[in-house]
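Handout, page 2. Input:
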Amino acid sequence: MRTRQRGIAIVLAMGVVALAAIAAAAIMVSQSTWSRQAELTADHVQAQAVLQAGADWARALLSDDRRISSVDHLGEPWALKLPPMQVENGELVGGIEDQQGKFNLNNLVSGGKINFGQLASFQRLLATLGLPHELAGALADWIDEDSQPQPRDGAEDAYYLALDPPYLAANRPLIDVAELALVRGFDDTVRARLHPYVSALPRFTAVNVNTAPPEVLAAVVEGLELGGAQLLVAQRERAYFRSADDFLRRLPQGAAAATNDISVSTDYFMATLRVTIGGAQARGKVLLARGATGWPVIVWRKYL
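Output:
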């Protein structure tokens, strides 16, 4: 009987030791996980701080550029991609892109009403990109203030309320081109095709002919074929356009642009930044608006 009791005691003791070992291991794993989480949190906080510093770098560069010259072109320092910049325990990379080198989708509506001159320009851009012209009417209806669909190609509340889930047309300017995902016809393929050529800026803007791709130039200049726009881009690589009149003088015969639709300077830029700190990474985009003097203001920022 005593032998049996001693055996049970030994088994119980071994069980207690095993449980203690398991508990100790669990505590060590928990401490290690907590320590790693704390480390990643600290790295992420630092990465966010560096991201803000990157935005300030872009603002300073654009402010200096405006002091030096009122003409913006792709040979200036802001247009150069930022090489990897070493920071404590990581690096910062990024770049600045002229948003007025693109077609501003919000130009489609002026004073709450459709601007038919800009609508025609957008339709030319769609044609050049091989996209349906119906997209122009759908987007104009999305932005304009009324709830009446355009006679052709429009889409207002009745269309969007029939979707699952239902929603209303915005009837206001776009804040970001990502909102195109809500507009009739702008599927993933269409948005990917359009993305390099369009922007969404908070006011009417002229296209900077020194930074616009040939597709955008062909859209805003009536009578300009894509081949002619490509020749203009090749010319500006040798000598950028110093004024709107300089650009207009170089247009081929039969091509014309309204003076308020073109410019050689830019107020809106997008800074895209990526920071890696230890095991954490932060990415962000900042839309900057530059005035005549002072640092550019942040219109919006987005962490990706």
